[in-house]
Design goal:
alpha/beta, 19 helices, Rossmann fold, Adenosylhomocysteinase, binds 1,4-dihydronicotinamide adenine dinucleotide, seven-stranded parallel sheet, 483 residues, eight-stranded mixed sheet
Length: 483
Amino acid sequence: MSFDHKVRDLSLAEAGRHQLRLAEHEMPGLMSIREEFSESQPLKGAKIAGSLHMTVQTAVLIETLTALGAEVRWASCNIYSTQDEAAAAAVVGPDGTPEDPQGVPVFAWKGETLEEYWDCTNQILTWPGGDGPNMILDDGGDATMLVHKGMEWEQAGQVPPTTDEDSEEFAVFKELVRRTMADDPQKWTKIGAGIKGVTEETTTGVHRLYELAKTGDLLFPAINVNDSVTKSKFDNKYGCRHSLIDGLNRATDVLIGGKVAVVCGYGDVGKGCAQSLAGQGARVVVTEIDPICALQAAMEGYRVARLEDVLAEGDIFVTTTGNFDVITAEHMVQMKDKAIVANIGHFDNEIDMAGLAKIEGVKKTEIKPQVHEWTFPASGDRPEHSIIVLSEGRLMNLGNATGHPSFVMSNSFANQTIAQIELFTKPGEYDKQVYVLPKHLDEKVARLHLDALGVRLTELTKEQADYIGVDVAGPYKPEHYRY
Ligand code: NAI
């Protein structure tokens, strides 16, 4: 079989396949969905453009989608997050060889440039024969943004000129759309018209979707996978609890115990990060803008402070907010010598990397890929000093480590698969709005993971169910319940 793809090295496929095999064992939810639906093929005819970290777990997701009948094209949603052996295994497929790949077209490798990144995103939306996909599976919303902005600018007849206000990435993005418009001035309009829906993985991407829905600009129905309870209360929290310190250890190997670790943001991701740092014996400080989350952090025993007040104390700083400019260049200059600065939120603008590079006299030294020392010149009483920035400010659990482990991703990706089936098989039942999966499916995803952990669920009697006003088979909680 011959198909286009671009990955680092197909000879890594065997190593990737071994990891996939072990991951499958740790992904009971995804595997049982594979079993349940492989005969009925609900995704037959689905052409899914996937933009999500190209890891081992994602390769298991890809092979689940294809087992259910889908065709896919895949890119990563971050320049550093690809595991090259997983990308190779997905291209080669379980039955192929590096010389005769039988898997799926993947366009992803660890360490893409921004130009390459947007080219790869363009590739997943450009299907052979001039067609487009009919479904998007997104993480962070970049593939969805390309279709929306592309269509908006095509209808305006031009891409707005690049200005000094644009980030480097947005300038690269505009350039890509300019190129595609020069080739085909209707490309994105046609692709947008062919898409039945998008399923979105993360908080930041979901935020973008609600903005589009609010202004009436959302082009197709969307399912917010992030806010399934079995996604955000597990992946964002327990996933980051695992992968934050994995990233810190692989990048720096500093002892975390006893250090002052500052976690900016105490939402789902922040809660997992704070817990893992505390588990290692760090003295955790939380910063928050939301009084409820600040109070939660205080009740858990963390000190809650303003970032300005702990700059000189913190040994490790982690941003988890999904907001921008949370750690500014001015903050970084004031930090302790060799403080570690990392972001685990979706985009790199939580830490002002552009501002850091503009500080007069600042010097950047590569310690190893995705670990950089930024040295500030002596100034006033302060001698020369430096900070260590991970993954250039991009999400460090995927840049410096391999992201979340399989078991937690099985929950997230079971939701993704169910959401794809839902939107693909029920056209017309969803408007151009953002939906969450119904609670009985959320409970189903959780249920699929209980046996593997030896959990024995208590069963309600009919009388008990009546007494608390639920069905014996669930759902067990009202919509407004917060877990
Ligand atoms: P969330 O909305 O639950 O939490 C973010 C918290 O940050 C909120 O409590 C908010 O009040 C707080 N915050 C906002 N601005 C702040 C500021 N200037 N200073 C201090 N706190 C501030 O969102 P969630 O689900 O925790 O996600 C956070 C980010 O992490 C998002 O970008 C999301 O896409 C990303 N994410 C990354 C993952 C990874 O593996 N790296 C996994 C899951 C989510």
